[in-house]
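Inputs:
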Amino acid sequence: MLTAAVPVFGADAPARRLRGNAPVRSPEVADRHVTFRLRADKANEVIVNGQWPNGRASMAKGTNDVWSVTLGPIEPGVWEYSFQVDGLTMIDPGNPAIKPMREPRTSILHLPAQPPALWDFQEVPHGVVRQHAYLSKSLGRLREFDVYTPPGYDVQPDTRYPTLYLQHGAGDNQATWTVHGKAHWILDNLLAQGRAKPMVVVTMDGHAAIPDGTGNQNNTALFERDLLEDVMLFVEVNYRAKPEAASRARVGLSMGGGQSLTIGLNHLDRFAWVGGFSASVPAADAVAGALRNPVATNRKLKLLWIGCGKDDFLRQRNEDFIALLKAKGVQYEWHLTDGNHSWPVWRGYLAETAPKLF
Amino acid sequence: MLTAAVPVFGADAPARRLRGNAPVRSPEVADRHVTFRLRADKANEVIVNGQWPNGRASMAKGTNDVWSVTLGPIEPGVWEYSFQVDGLTMIDPGNPAIKPMREPRTSILHLPAQPPALWDFQEVPHGVVRQHAYLSKSLGRLREFDVYTPPGYDVQPDTRYPTLYLQHGAGDNQATWTVHGKAHWILDNLLAQGRAKPMVVVTMDGHAAIPDGTGNQNNTALFERDLLEDVMLFVEVNYRAKPEAASRARVGLSMGGGQSLTIGLNHLDRFAWVGGFSASVPAADAVAGALRNPVATNRKLKLLWIGCGKDDFLRQRNEDFIALLKAKGVQYEWHLTDGNHSWPVWRGYLAETAPKLF
């Protein structure tokens, strides 16, 4: 079992000590001023590209081949940033906080607000994020999903909970809504403020089709099978999740918003709460059943929440979808807000919608 | 709440479609041959550096500025690799599987074996990995730890479990033992084979001192406080963990091995099972109490397991520590094995030691 001779790969630290290279601290936060650093001896140009306003800045090469720049004051928030080294976009290798993505090139800079925001860690009772790997029977391969359980879940064995199925966008994966979206802290904080009901939250990997570069037109159909036949079954056997439509919400953002609107509106017997954040809204024929009989649809739907930012590239498609719902007589809540196609908007949308659920 | 105008940061996918750049697939696995790819238009040299034998190879620039190389056959395993772009070491941005590290520069290539190895996902009952963030009272700041609960934990509310406190090395963090070490799958598989008892496993962040580049001589003392006063208390209140020494193990690797031997041997009233994998073994005076009275030490210790690879740079220090234990009359198990200071060795050590616990 321990036979393979392998190169010394874990021994980086002593090797570095011998070279005399201390670790490069990045990002270093002092109040709201942040210093970014990268050691790159052969680079000609190093840029930090941050999501905060005016977040793009050149870094300058100093001693010991370390490039750096100090920016600020930066507004509190959960911000994304990347380094661009001679045009190559990459994470900050000094920062363990990485946005979970299919192509990870983005680091996280979390500057808590004072007083704290809903997406900041606060001293309140906390839930738990539980990681599951599973062999999907629908898809025939190993996949992952996460489950947030609210504070007290383990000590109230007779309580059953409603479930929010919460979906990420095209670039992300099952971990993004918690690691970067801070969904677990948003719910902990809302709950502590008495503004939301305790709920279980399930975040799946929205990429059900094996990526092949073609766009995977059948991804939503494959995802639907995996959701309905594998994950929901697992969740309702292994968690104390209430097994009826009135206790299930199907919500997502961008690509996951399209999945949620499509699957939700086609399965109102399973989901009474449906939401799309900056959604890749479905074509009319993909939700024809729900549009055909608005009386039945409205009777089953407890909430159809659709939001999009004024500067979002999907704004027009969302407005067209809203016009379609209106023409057909399907009830909805429409929120045209400030913002574009980005996580600061989506954290806000979760904070707006979670109090309306269940 | 949704007021900040931010640059379009989540809209990478449509922008890329406009540029005509399809995602770059990396790593692409076909049987045991693996193709690595990176788009880098200005690079002069791109190298893949893998942990498997003969894992270092130059990549060649092809069409569309994509560098690539196909290697293999590569032996099954959970391997580390990095790209080196003009000397800058970085993760493979095509691969979402990243080794959790304080300075993330390492991707994971997991090639399951046939028949599957203990660290491969198998169709057996699975436990759950639960993520906790906490405000450490000992350290006064936000930290994280993970808890593995074995299969059946949630459906056997009257069962209490022994607890393995399992610690990573200097470069890593609380997530590394599961994401990269596959500790959860090793335990699931051992349990399914009837070779280990069901246990709870706690993995903490071993860096208790705020990193300041000085080496933090008091890190072990700070970590001990956080372990004993914050995390163990939390675990034994919130999990059904048996609260006595005979049901607690303190095991770790490298830096975490030093922490485990030091804290374990100084707190035999709390931990009856102690282990060091390729450990930064403590100095004699750091465990003087246990050495002073070997009769009492041996009576309390159910197992002192120490292992190190023949090619490990810490071999001599481990052999010196074993000689010290022998001279003082403290009982131990000593395993000088093949291998060096690396994760293939440590997965094997966990597979060897877990069956001996509890």
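The longest strand of chain A covers residues 77-85. Flag for discussion at group meeting.
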